[in-house]
Design goal:
A: 361 residues; alpha/beta; Rossmann fold; four-stranded parallel β-sheet; B: SH3 type barrels; 18% helix; binds iron/sulfur cluster
Chain lengths: 361, 77
């Protein structure tokens, strides 16, 4: 497309990197809070072209990774109920719960199906009127409205055997939790492009006002990321803290009001448990009364015992940005994509999986 | 998981579009899109839903910024 190919142009990338070097004098650490950024930064070697005093750290940006073990155990419990079909996005099936995974359950005969869209799960429900189809609602603000839209469609079309286990997570409350914890040392946030397509910039204004930490919403091509870092560095050099949008072609300040309306129609914010970050107020989504007939939590008994994290796994610390995978004793030796100990190694966007694939250490 | 790619709209039927990128095509639902696309527009698609109609004017504004920074000499037209 006109005006889109430039964002991938490698020769322009080195020019952009030069501009960063030309203005950058102060040491700074930026956190990316989107797993797609984590992967793109590795894949395009962004770290290698930055000045040495600019550090990039990964945050809680992988929805699969931040899902609490307890919620995975609930999904496993669901898959063991006769007549239940569990439908889910691909990465979830391999994440270890406290004593099994959906993949193992599938091997033992559970009906677990991977789908590309929630609408596919509705189709499965329609074709299996005698079964109950439960979709695992995992995802941030990018994904949650698609699931809300599917719930609205299921209700309207009378697909009563379709429900959702809502484990959705909202990112701005997690940024707030990270900063208020005081343990995280960052000078700016690389805000997630496609989450922001939905939520716009208002939630980051709150973060900037409270913590004086610059926020730049960036896209995913190499030039997007480099220009976004340039914008963060400019703010740091000027001693400013603002919300800026680098990814203008995909993000409007007001976000996507249509998607937000659908989201708000079906769900309301609720306290939610995150791996590594614990319970964060108003960081999850619960069903509103009008759609409770599609709430798996209300339809099934999903009580599970408290579940410890896998022994030795540092996923929690990695998601909070206080450790890198290299500091985990199990990294590469015991834990690898074929034999993942924690979710950060399972998900294609997990920080451990990205380090495994792209770093030399 | 929030991977979403800009794809070109090649078919519209009611609330369902078909979009294309590098020879691969995908269906997507328009229920939550911010602005209804027309044939030939680019949209961002995620998990079977179109989320956003890409604004070529906005893409061009970013390139204008690059020109100001000296990263490119000319904005292509
Ligand atoms: S390398 Fe494996 S065990 Fe270590 S933190 Fe990552 S996922 Fe957990």
């Amino acid at each position: 497309m006109k005006y889109l190919t430039e964002y991938r142009d490698g020769s322009l990338a080195s020019k952009m990197a030069e501009r960063i070097k030309a203005i950058s004098t102060k040491p700074a650490r930026f956190m990316e809070i989107c797993g797609t950024h984590t992967v793109a930064i590795f894949k395009h070697g962004i770290r290698d072209v930055l000045p040495e005093h600019i550090g990039l750290i990964s945050g809680p940006g992988c929805p699969v990774c931040v899902t609490a073990t307890r919620d995975i155990d609930k999904a496993i419990k669901l898959s063991r109920i006769p007549d239940v079909i569990v439908a889910t996005f691909g990465d979830m099936v391999r994440v270890p719960g406290s004593e099994s995974s959906l993949q193992k359950e599938k091997g033992l005969g559970a009906d677990v199906r991977m789908v590309y869209s929630t609408m596919d799960a509705i189709e499965i429900a329609r074709q299996n009127p005698n079964k109950k189809v439960v979709f695992l609602g995992i995802g941030f603000e990018t994904t949650a409205p698609t699931i809300a839209a599917a719930v609205v469609a299921a209700q309207a079309q009378g697909v009563n055997n379709f429900s959702v286990l809502s484990c959705h997570k909202l990112l701005p409350p997690a940024m707030d939790a990270l900063l208020s914890g005081g343990e995280l040392d960052v000078n700016g946030f690389m805000c997630p492009g496609h989450v922001s397509t939905i939520i716009g910039t208002a939630p980051y204004e709150v973060v900037v006002a409270q913590y004086h930490t610059p926020c730049v919403v960036m896209g995913f091509e190499p030039l997007d990321i480099l220009q976004g870092i340039y914008m963060l560095v400019s703010q740091i050099e000027a001693g400013e803290a603002r919300v800026e949008i680098q990814y203008r072609r995909a993000v409007a300040p007001e976000g996507n009001p249509n998607a937000l309306k659908t989201l708000d129609r079906v769900f309301e914010p609720c306290d939610s448990p995150w791996r590594g970050l614990g319970m964060i107020p108003k960081s999850g989504l619960a069903f509103r009364e009008a759609y409770r007939a599609h709430d798996a939590e209300a339809l099934f008994d999903l009580e599970v015992p408290d579940s410890p994290e896998p022994p030795g796994c540092k996923c929690g610390d990695i998601l909070r940005g206080v450790n890198t995978p290299i500091e985990c004793k199990l990294f590469r030796k015991v834990c690898n994509p074929e034999n993942p100990v924690g979710p950060c190694m399972v998900s294609s966007e997990g920080t451990c999986a990205a380090y495994y694939r792209y770093s030399q250490v | 998981m929030c991977v979403a790619a800009p794809m070109k709209v090649i078919e519209i039927e009611g609330d369902i579009i078909r979009a294309e990128l590098g020879g691969m095509t995908k269906e997507a639902n328009l229920a939550i899109v911010d602005e209804r696309p027309e044939l030939g527009d680019y949209v961002i698609i995620h998990a079977g839903f179109a989320l956003h109609r890409i604004d070529p004017e906005e893409a061009k504004i970013t390139l204008a910024l690059w020109k100001e920074m000296g990263v490119i000499d000319e904005i292509p037209d």
